[in-house]
Write a structure and sequence with these properties.
about 120 residues; alpha+beta; two-stranded antiparallel sheet; globular
Length: about 120
Amino acid sequence: MTVERDPVFGCELVTSRLDSDGYAYQGKSRAHIVAWERAHGPVPPGKELEHLCRRRNCKALHHLEPVTHRENELRKSWAYRAKRTRCPRGHDMTLHHQVTPERGVVCRMCNREAGAA
């Protein structure tokens, strides 16, 4: 699997084996789910992983958040995403947000921390 780190937005973009919807695969599973399960165990029941960056081929753990299906659907709306004031790690998004080309909203502080690790 080929992965490229986006130096601006902190995404870990899988560039090999994408499906027609743009999701990356590792074996028979989506790469972001494999990465999450290796780091955190199974996705909690009743939750699905949302890409904060809106990039379906990103597997960066700091860009993934387990949310309900309803929350995931609500976050498809730019107006809803833009209202978030805190990232999953608690950073102030009014000060530290970045908007990806796909109009995802990611946290600059989380990107810095992940890049330093």
